[in-house]
Design brief:
The complex is a heterodimer of chains A (185) and B (187). Chain A contains seven helices and no strands. Chain A is an all-alpha fold. The chains are: A mainly alpha (185), B mainly alpha (187).
Chain lengths: 185, 187
């Protein structure tokens, strides 16, 4: 039975990881169908609660989900089965793509083709910032933190990890001493 | 080199709040330190769209491979995954203490807007590299760099079509590439 559960976990996460292109959240419905509806490894509420927690912890959201679901369904072995399932497709496909990419000679028309491709990537990163911002920027202090983070990185070459730590520590100070009504998530 | 890759991606994983794109801005930092160029980083974003899977795993595999081959790719991917293996079991065990601690929520509440700033700064750095051919904002101010007009037009048109008109990013990437390819023969 435990063997079977691990196989179900591994397979579900391989399928979800292979067919989702738009990041972790896009694979939730597919996973829910496999894990909750079909194989009944956990109930729907628990599954969704874990999905939210997976976003709160640092690290890869999809992998956090896999660890939650795997650990709760079948202990440490389940966690490893689910995690491997969620890592493998991305690793294998990306490795092949990178090897191919490293072989492409960037000369002549391919060089200008790459200029176009890179420029389009810039647009999608800006779009990502806007879409994350729609959820995260709900009052003035948040805007200030966002703008400061941007400026210290761009103008003063601050490293991103320090910005994250400073912002978090500021959050604790701000809600503890300046605006005493507790943080909300 | 492998140790450097290991440490870089452990850092990205443990401080990777706010999802793939926020982590990507840290990956940009680290990949420049590992000897990659801004252009290689921009290509990562294009490949990432064509390849399924979480952004951070794709990024670790790509950066690791370009920095130190197959071993580099494996080490980087394993490192970026470590936080989940450590933190999720801990979280399940200490759930009550963790979820009820206001400090945790206060910390995360300000990390979110900072993550937006991070993503925007990664976009801006990429913009400088692709359009002006410079690595940092200081380089841009140091002397006059004529912009690459084609790249600038692609950035503006793709931003408009994707953000305002919701056009599929893969389609826009492919079309931008084809136009760039054709431009070589026109110019």
């Amino acid at each position: 039975m435990t063997k079977h559960v691990n196989w179900v976990l591994f397979r579900s996460f391989v399928i979800a990881g292979t067919f989702t292109f738009a990041g972790g959240l896009a694979m939730l419905p597919l996973l829910q169908k496999e894990i909750v509806d079909k194989h009944k490894l956990m109930n729907k509420d628990e599954f969704l609660e874990d999905a939210i927690m997976a976003q709160t912890l640092p690290g890869i959201i999809a992998l956090n989900s896999a660890c939650f679901v795997g650990k709760k369904s079948n202990g440490i072995s389940g966690m490893i089965a689910a995690a491997l399932g969620s890592i493998l497709p991305a690793f294998v496909f990306m490795l092949l793509a990178t090897i191919l990419y490293a072989y492409i000679p960037q000369e002549g028309p391919l060089q200008t083709a790459f200029v176009g491709i890179r420029a389009s990537a810039v647009a999608f990163i800006f779009a990502a910032a806007i879409s994350i911002g729609q959820h995260a920027l709900n009052h003035k202090v948040n805007w200030l933190i966002m703008i400061l983070s941007f400026l210290v990185i761009v103008v003063f070459n601050f490293q991103a990890p320090y910005v994250i730590l400073f912002a978090g520590i500021f959050g604790i100070i701000y809600y503890s001493y300046i605006k005493k009504e507790g943080g909300k998530v | 080199m492998l140790i450097q890759i290991l440490l870089a991606f452990l850092k990205v994983g443990f401080l990777g709040f706010g999802g793939g794109y926020a982590m990507l801005s840290m990956v940009l930092d680290e990949s420049l330190k590992l000897g990659l160029t801004v252009h290689q980083f921009a290509d990562l974003n294009a490949l990432d769209m064509l390849i399924p899977g979480p952004i951070a795993i794709n990024a670790a595999t790509y950066v690791g491979y370009l920095a130190d081959g197959f071993a580099g790719a494996t080490v980087a991917t394993a490192a970026v995954c470590v936080p989940s293996f450590v933190l999720v079991p801990l979280f399940i065990k200490f759930k009550r203490t963790f979820a009820n601690n206001p400090k945790v929520n206060q910390f995360l509440d300000m990390v979110k807007p900072a993550a937006v700033g991070l993503v925007a700064s990664a976009g801006f750095t990429l913009f400088l590299g692709v359009v002006f051919g410079v690595d940092t904002f200081q380089d841009l101010l140091a002397k006059v760099h004529p912009p690459d007009v084609f790249a600038l037009v692609v950035v503006i048109v793709c931003s408009y079509l994707h953000i305002k008109k919701n056009v599929n990013p893969i389609l826009l990437t492919v079309v931008s590439g084809i136009i760039g390819f054709g431009l070589y023969y026109i110019m």
